[in-house]
Specification:
The protein has helices at 3-18, 38-46, 71-86, 91-105, 136-139, 142-154, 164-172, 184-194, and strands at residues 26-27, 32-33. It is mainly α and 197 residues long.
Length: 197
Amino acid sequence: MNTIMRKSVLGIAGLAVAGGLAAGPLNHDTGTPVETTPAAVAVQADKPAVDKSTLIPHGVQGQQSRIELSDEQIANTKAIIAATKKAGMDERAAVVAIATALQESKLENLGHLGDRNDHDSQGLFQQRPSSGWGTVEQITDPEYSTLAFLKGLKQVDGWQDMPLTKAAQTVQVSAYPFHYAQWEQQAADLVAEHWNS
């Protein structure tokens, strides 16, 4: 593509984005527009892509659910990813953690909910102080609660080779063990989007 044509295309894309239009290429994993300004393209080129085959190595199980996330939920997603990296674990561990938090709290850092609480469960993973997960202050800290979840996951022999719902259930011991599976695709999409951001 010659330089004049390239500048025209980038200029049109920049105007469309500035004008609030969803013009330009779409991220086919998320259906969102890809930012096409020269600066954004340069930043995206510097980030290595996540190998998506490692995110869902066994395929998803059952019908998948998806919710739209608020800024707070995205921040909690990023906190889970950062804690996963801090724990020295890989993208698959982040997928398991995020899917678990989607099921347990919809990625909201829940405090005490009164009569709606499952006993004394709180935080992103609905961990219980009375079950030894930590203090209320600790389990409502996204980094601490994620590291606690991942510590439990590390103790599950062969978790990497298990379906997500079985790995999550082994750590969480939920009354609804198969509900984690429905969040695997959204969790994988979130890890693919935010692992290198």
